[in-house]
Structures are given as C-alpha cells and as structure tokens.
C-alpha cells in the first residue's frame, strides 16, 4: 500500500499563472548582509523539517494501521475461501465415489440432465417474460427520471424518484448481465454464426436500458457536483437518497470482489456450477470514490468561477467570503447528512484549503501590485482566525498557505513599494530636472502670484497612496517600514535638488551668456515647493502617528522629521543661492569697498542698495512670505559679512581717517534704511551694532581703544586677527602704536579670560586670515545657521 503524502501546493487552476524561483538559495542570499541571517534561516528550515517529519510520521502511522487492518481482512478472507474450497472438494469426492458405481452414475447423470433441462426451460421462460416487460419498465423509469430532471432547480431539486429508479434499474441490469452471460456461453458452446447473431440481437434489445443507465449515472454525478447548492435549496433528502444508492452499489462491489476470489480458488467443475453467480458479476462501479472526486471538482469549479469573475487579486480576496459561507453551510447542514466514516467535513476543508493555496500561489507568481500583497497578508491572518473558530485541526491545513511564508509578503510588499516609488520619483525628477535646467517657460504661479512647482504635490500624492494602503493593514510595523522607505526616497530627491541647484548656479556664474534665463524664477519656485513639501511631510506625520503604538510612532516621527529638515535645508540653500546671485552681480562693486580710491569718491553703496532693492522687489512678489522673511535676514547677514570682510582686507594704513568713518556712517545709514523697510528698526539696529563698535574703535585714541574693544569682545569674542587688520589699516597710527595697542589687548584678554561667546555672532562669517574660509565655516557657520532654520518652523507655525 503506497504511502499517502500531503498534496503539493502547486497545481493547475491558478488565477494568475507565473513562474516560481528556480534557485531558492539565491532567493535567500540576495546580498552579503543575508549571510548574517543564515542562523535564522537554518532555524526556520529545521522548524519546517520538524513539521514535515511530524506530518510524515502521522501519515506513516495511519498507513501502517490501515495496512495491518487490510492484511488481517485478507487473512480472514483466505481462511473463508479455504473452508469453501474444502467443502467443494468434499462434494467432488462424494460425486467421484458415486460414479464408481456405473449404474448409480448413469442415474445421477440422467437426473442431472433432466434438472438442467428443467432449469433451462424455466430460465428461458423467465427471460422471455422479462424481455417482454422490459420495454414498458424502461419507459416507466425513463418517465420518472425525466420528471426529476425537469424540476426548475435541476440537480439541486428534490429528485424524489431516485431510490425507485435505482432499485428497478438495478434489477434490470442484473437481468441484462445474466442474460448476456448465458448468451455468450451458448454462443461459445455452439461455435456458430447463429449463436453470435442471437447475442447481438439481445444486445440491441438492451440498448434502451443501457442509455437509461448512462443517463441515470450522469444525473447522480450532477447531483453530487451540486451538493452544497442542493442543501441550500432545502433538498437535503436528495443527498441522503444519493448516499443510500452509493452505499448499495458499494455492497454490490464487495460481492463482486468476493465472487472473483471464489473463481480463483475453485476448480474447473466447480466453476461451471457457479456460472449463475458469475452471470451476476459486473464491473466495479466504485461510486464512493467517484462521489469524493465530484466533491473535489465542485470545490475547484467554485474557485475557478471566482477567479474568472475577479477583476484583480484584491477583488478575488475580497470576494472569498463565499468560501467561509460554504464551510459554515457544510459544517451545519451537509455534515449531518453523511455517514461518519465519510469524514466529509475533513474532506471538504482539505479540498478548499488545497485549492485556496493554489490560487494564492498563482497570485504571488503573477507579480501582483503592492496593494494585492498587503491585502493577501491581512486575508491570510483572517483565514487562520476563521479556521480556528471552526476548530479545524492544524493537520488538515497542510501544506500551510504559501508554504508558511506569508510574512514574506510584507517584505515583498515593502520592496515593491520602494521600487515603484523609486521609479515614479525618478521619472518625476527627470521631468522636473528638464524643466528646471531648460527653463523654456516661466514657472507656474498660484492665485497669490507665488511661483510654484508641481514636484511636492505629485510626490506626496504618490507617497500618501502607499502610506494609506499600509495604514489599512492595521499593522504598525508595516506602516513604519513604508514611511521609513518613503523618507529615504524623499532624502534622495533632496540630494538631487541640491546638486541641480549647485550646478545651475555654477553655470550662471561662469557662463552667464550661454545659460538660459530665468534661473532666479525657478530657484524661487523650488524654494516655495520645498517649503510646501515640508508642510506635507509634517501633515503626514501628524496624521500617521496616532495610528500606531509608541514603538512605531517614534520611528515615523524620526524619519519624517529628518525628511522635513531635508526640505528646509534645500529651501535654505535656495535662499542662499538667491542671495549669492545678488552679490555675484555686485562682485565688482564690493571688491572696491575700503580698498579702492573710488570708494571715497563714488557712491558705491547706492549702487549696492539699488541692486538689492531690485532683486528684493522681484523676490517679494513671488516668494512665500515665510521664506522671504528668512531671505531678508540672510541678506542682511551676507551684507554684513561682505562689508566686514572688505574692511578686513584693507591695506595697512589704508583707512583714511576721519573721511573713512564719515563714509562708513553714510553707507550704513543707506543700508539701514533699506533693511528697515522689511524688518523692525530695533532688530536692524541690533544687527548693525557690530559696525558701530568698529567705527568707535576707528575713532578711539590708543589709550581708550581698549574700552571700545572690550564692548566688542564681550559680545563677539576676541577676534584678534580681524581687529589687528582693522587697526593696522588706520592711517593715523604707525606700526609701533598698533603693536603696543595689540599687546595691551592681548594682555587684557588673558587677564580677563575673554573667550568665545556662547552664541555665534556675525563675526564667524568673517574670514580669518590664518584659516581658510572652508575651515572657518565648517567649525562655526553651522551653529549660526541653526537658529535661522528653526525660524522657518516658527514662521510656518
């Protein structure tokens, strides 16, 4: 007896056919990091092996028990056949003993011959009688069958005539078998054409009976294929009648098997005497096995119909509630109709589970959309819960759905989300990059006249679609993973924007003639768009955090806050670029400050102020107000750093006093008036205080300069390289005087312990002659920029 193994999860009938992986090891080891997971994979495989071994042991145990039972029955059958054989041998011996006496044998032969003639006459008369009545009986049975078949519900109807038809049909088939057997025996004995023709005539007589038998069998299997629908229609009695017929036919099959065993052990003469029993022998119908096959086919047909009707994988999964309804109906209404030894509940559950596993594997192999994977993962959890409510043993649900790898759906889902989001973003960035660099048309404007890009809106539409789908899963881990991966894509886009911005600004500075116009407008639009993206990310964080536990809330918050910071960094870089464009136009003018004779004679500051005013008016009309406020703040800082750096570069004794002081006061007054249009005067005064301190030091005597320097150092730190450059620039002090003053300042610094200020000031932006600009900014500028980035949140809030 063959060992029955659990059915394979693969098979035909999948909704979405595809090809599975041909190399499982390659699937496990996709990257070097996967080597670290070997221990986990090994434990997982050992666990699966243990489960398979347990199932195999259970199957082996069951098969061994069935084999022992079968062998026991075979031994009993062999003993019974042996006893029959001994009895028949005894009969043969009695006959042989009687035949030793010639007279007795002749009498016995005559009696036997007369008995045979009499029996043949009776049988012939009975055959003729049955043949004469058979046509009418077949017609009556045909009418009964037609009556059942004509019911509006078809095979799902009541079929009240099943047992009556089967009973009479069974008698007619027995009569047919016996008659044809005798005709075959007679034709073989006669060895003539007439005998063969008689048999062919009989076969034609039974053609209507054969047709009726075939129709009846087809009707039985039509009912068997619709057991569930029949029960739903309230015709459970039909199923009971069907099962009764199957039980009767099963017993007839057992009789036929017994007759065949008798034929094998009986000798030739005994076989001749059992020819009437052989006449009733028939083909094994095996109705019970066919019934179970029809049940399996009906389950598969239900799934096939569902797959055809489903528009996609999600639709198929959402419509699978019919399966749970079927199982509930089977347990409550179908199960009581079947004998216990059918184990029909177990059979149905296994049939549904096997076909369901095939369908799910088909969906997975068809490269489904991400939402299908997520829906499938959630549905499998629901399925397990329902099976638990049905109290279905785990052994019935083997192999596990998707080979127990349903959790891998989440990994596949996240990978698919990232891949799709990446592709969408790449295409979006290509379009935005092309528009930003070619600048064939000006950027779009909103109703307020603000320049806008479509990047942030489109990107967050895509991100929200995927995030909402993950949120629908009800799993915080899934949502956190999707948010984290989406944040990575956002960060990648921010990096690309910074590179594009730097490249376009560099082209504008180096090759202004060959660079397309409109860079200012597009930088303004990008700054607005990045601020809008930060708003979108902040809204996403506020919407998602309440949906998850504290564990995943922290992950979502950290990832999205990092993305928000990145968007603000890009917006900040846009502001810096806009300011750099202004001062790039003023480069030739700012170089002349303090160092050129024209500074004393020409109105250079008026030119600087007018240029800043022109740019600022353009920016103000198209820039987000929050960004514009930061731009003014940064522009003021940039002006001060440019002005102070120009002062630091003055040649020794290059500052002509008191003319230079008067010039500086006049220039600062003009700039103060300009910035006061956009900022509070007190704030502007605070920013220009450093210039006032420097002017005071330029006006101070050698003995009193320390007092002015003390006020400066208390706020901005020692800044000795800068102070030395300024003091050496005074034309009213000689080298010795400057040296003495500097020695005094250095001594006072040591004595008083003057150090760097707690908060960075504008002086961090002034180049140190002993350090490179890059080093200076690396060490200090980041700290200075921090409060400005924070102000973006304050303004937006």
UniProtKB/TrEMBL annotation:
A biological process term (GO) from this entry: exocyst localization
Classification via InterPro entries: EXOC3/Sec6 (IPR010326), EXOC3/Sec6_C (IPR042532)
Annotated GO CC locations: exocyst
Alphabetized Gene3D superfamilies for the sequence: 1.10.357.50, Exocyst complex component Sec6, C-terminal domain
Claim: Ligase is one of the keywords in the record: no
Keywords: Exocytosis, Transport
Annotated Pfam families: Sec6
Top-level taxon of the source organism: Eukaryota
Gene Ontology MF terms: SNARE binding
Similarity-based family: Belongs to the SEC6 family.
PANTHER family attached to this UniProt entry: EXOCYST COMPLEX COMPONENT 3, EXOCYST COMPLEX COMPONENT SEC6-RELATED
Protein name per UniProt: Exocyst complex component Sec6
Species lineage: Eukaryota, Fungi, Dikarya, Basidiomycota, Agaricomycotina
